[in-house]
Write a structure and sequence with these properties.
- Keywords: Cytoplasm, GTP-binding, Hydrolase, Magnesium, Nucleotide-binding.
- It holds the Pfam family MMR_HSR1.
- A hairpin with a 3-residue loop joins β5 and β6.
- Helices cover 8% and strands 27% of the residues.
- It has two domains: 153 residues, Spo0b-associated Gtp-binding Protein, Chain: A, CATH 2.70.210; 68 residues, P-loop containing nucleotide triphosphate hydrolases (Rossmann fold, 3-Layer(aba) Sandwich), CATH 3.40.50.
- The chain has three helices and eleven strands.
- Strands 3-1-8-5-6 form a five-stranded mixed sheet, with no helix packed on it. Strands 4-2-7 form a three-stranded mixed sheet, with no helix packed on it.
- By secondary structure, it is mainly beta.
Length: 229
């Protein structure tokens, strides 16, 4: 079994601010309040895809944000809502959402899961009018979008695992059998994470090179051996 992990920070969009404005038209010198509400911040979703390599991009980009909502406009116009963001992960990924300790198992492609909610837009001064206050000069700030820490863990069962000492040709064998593009070089520890390839209907995994004492945690032993069970 291969275990692939990634850790990212996710932030939903902030809500837009409400607007303070007043109607100004010819022949209407004392128009009432017309400041619109701010738009809602974008949500962040997770959705499964049948691609085991999707987690790689979250090692390079560890902070994901959705768009903020636009501020309210005059003439009672609500600001545009922020665009949602959807994170694609391989089917079979376990998603842990901190600090809530919520755990999701992504097992189907169709259903997106919301993991961070966008902030609500602030009210414009149009919303604060009353019988005793015809010209309110107050508006609300948009609320902040939710921020969460996400851990992805993908457990993938391979049919064959290539194990051995560093620099003995495991990656070259994987490339020859599967037309994978595992990195190959004439020095130890070229492979620092498992590489995968398919041969006919079988999944083959190239496990990073092990050294003597790996089972006792020597070097990166535990980190590499966690992929084998």
């Amino acid at each position: 079994m291969l275990i692939d992990t990634a850790h990212i920070t996710v932030k939903a969009g902030n809500g837009g601010d409400g607007r303070v404005s007043f109607r100004r038209e010819k022949f209407i010198p004392k128009g009432g309040p017309d400041g619109g509400n701010g738009g809602k911040g974008g949500n962040v979703y997770i959705q499964g895809r049948n691609d085991i390599r999707l987690l790689k991009k979250y090692r390079a980009k560890t902070k994901i944000t959705a768009d903020d909502g636009d501020n309210g406009q005059e003439n009672k116009k609500t600001g545009k809502n922020g665009r949602d963001t959807t994170l694609l992960v391989p089917l079979g990924t376990r998603v842990t959402i901190h600090p809530y300790s919520i755990v999701l198992d992504i097992i189907e492609e169709e259903k997106p899961y919301r993991i961070a909610s966008g902030g609500k837009g602030g009210k414009g001064n149009w919303e604060f009018r009353s019988a005793t206050n015809q010209t309110p000069r107050e508006a609300e700030k948009g609320r902040l979008g939710e921020t969460v820490q996400i851990t992805f863990e993908l457990r993938l069962i391979a049919d064959v695992g290539l194990m051995g000492l560093p620099n003995v040709g495991k990656s070259s064998l994987l490339n020859a059998l599967t037309q994978a593009h595992a990195r190959v070089a004439d020095y130890h520890f070229t492979t620092l994470e498992p590489n995968l390839g398919t041969f006919q209907k079988y999944i083959i995994a190239d496990i990073p090179g092990l050294i003597e004492g790996a089972s006792n945690g020597k070097g990166l032993g535990f980190q590499f051996l966690k992929h084998i069970s």
